[in-house]
Amino acid sequence: MSAHDTAHDRSSPLNWIEGTRIGLVALAAAAVWLRLWEPYPAVSVVGVIGLVVGGWPILREAFEAVAARRMTMELSMAIAIFAAAAIGEFFTALVITLFVLVAEVLEGLTVGRGRRAIRDLMELLPREVAVRRAGAIQSISAQELSAGDAVLIAPGGRVPVDGTVLSGHSFVDESRITGESLPVEKVAGARVFAGSINQSGALEVAAERIGRDTSYGKIIEAVERAEKSRAPVQRLADRLAGYLVYFAVGAAVLTFLITRDIYATISVIIVAGACGIAAGTPLAILGGIGRSARLGAIIKGGVHLETLGRVDTVVLDKTGTLTYGRPEVQRLMPHGDATMGQLLDAVATAEVRTEHPLGKAILAYARAQGREVAEPASFSYTPGRGIAAALAGDTILAGNRAWMLEHGVALPQTPKGGDGAGTEVYVARGGDLLGCIVMGDTVRPDAATALAALRAMGIRTVLLTGDARRVATAVGGALGIREIEAELLPEEKLDRIDGLVGGGRVVAMVGDGVNDAPALARASVGVAMGSGTDVARESADVVLLGNDLQRFAETLAVARRTRRVIWWNFAGTLTVDAIGIGLAAFGFLNPLLAAFIHVSSELVFILNSARLLPARASEGGKGAAVRSVAA
After folding, report:
1. How far apart are CA 531 and CA 524, in angstroms?
2. Active site residue 419
3. Number of domains within the chain
4. In what order do the strands lie in the sheet with 297-299?
5. For residue range 337-376, what is the model confidence (pLDDT) as tens digits?
6. Same domain for 421 and 514?
7. 528: which strand partners?
8. Residue 572 falls inside a structural domain
């Protein structure tokens, strides 16, 4: 029976009505088998009562299908049940009814498990919160929160809102939100996100977004919308299920015309079924979406899950996707007799007042190394060149080669920038070169593992970036990407995607910026990094939370597995139907055995799809928990 028709609202265990109905039908079947009470030779009163009690849901669904002009398995099973009763096979009719009822309950519970796995994500947020209102602390329901409320979060408590810290000092575990492995220090003015865990001190947070408006809540809504969507393969499954019913009825009519055997005819109707397709397909899609969500990838619909399962080419942006998108010190290269300490102290003094991203990164690195940063007596910055600062009567210069040459600083003939992928910041003091600091965008540690996994799946990888060619070549080469195109404008990226899609490739584009939005929309599947821009996330079909590319590779594997499960169910259903109908038509199956084969095969296909469902909300620790977009 079809899970999306019969059990789509089930989210709790077997209810007493269903249990009572199954129990009564089982008792009726036992009474007919033992011939406990048969006042009329031709009609079993117990059998009729059992069929009325147990067959009513099946008959109702069959009537609804006829009214909607749909051919469903409920209609064919209703025909089989009452045809068996009409020839006096009440025990067979009751057993068929019992099989159908039990199968629908098991199917519904399985679907309910998948939907509960999604709804359980919202349970990570606290139901009761403490707020400060009118100077007094109150405990209220999370549903009573309003934007602007001052929310108090105790150590060990979960943050219920997106907001800004008003007071307090603590470290917050955002691993399930942003993918940051270490706790993040929070002081007044820092941002916090719903679903993160306050570890040490108490915090008072000004609520800005609550409930479904938080970044976490929006992820839940995206998963719920995806669960309700219907992929093309699911629509194909529904159509094929209808065709199989027509085929079963036609085969039954042909069997009767040839054999005139009513038992064989009824057996043909009973054994044929498309339940493995009709029930297994939506359940597999539900399981794939739910498992991907636990991995940290929000797939916005079944159609995108199906397309992911067919992806053969992954196109990647560089900055913010393969790399962190922020400059970091990669290497200190002292010159001559200068030491690393002298080089770092001098450049930190020069950069202490700068607003330049490279200067801020250098200053942060120096302080992290425990260096004392001296304040310069004077400071000047020339855009595109460098900095001149005065300290203890010496002039400290920090900048590019042109800046050094302009001030008469002698440089080596060949720039010593390491592998050529970084930006060189030269440093001089008193006219003498102290050395060079190589700055670069650090490659994400998960990128190499993810790309290796993609190659193992036989997926072609392409790097498209607007960055300099030498930088792109260095990053792509280090990750094993052979196809690299650099210095591309957004429209040129779009042209490359068009060429791949037009050439018959199924393309997943992974990016994070505004410039990636057109390419994300044009690709077969657009995948946005969770830390990316709002435009990128809105344009994408999949949002990769926590910015972990390895999770994307795992999601691709889940999508491929989902597709294999669905097609295995297709092939299995067609095989069982073809063999079953043949055996029934030639009289090798009686109605009871035909019913057993039908229901057993259905349960096999349902359980095959159920293997995709995530096990528990806690499975897999950090990596398996759903992370919210820190937007």
Report:
1. 22
2. no
3. 3
4. 297-299, 542-544, 525-529, 507-511, 313-316, 460-464, 483-485
5. 889 999 999 999 998 888 777 888 888 889 888 888 888 8
6. no
7. 511, 543
8. no
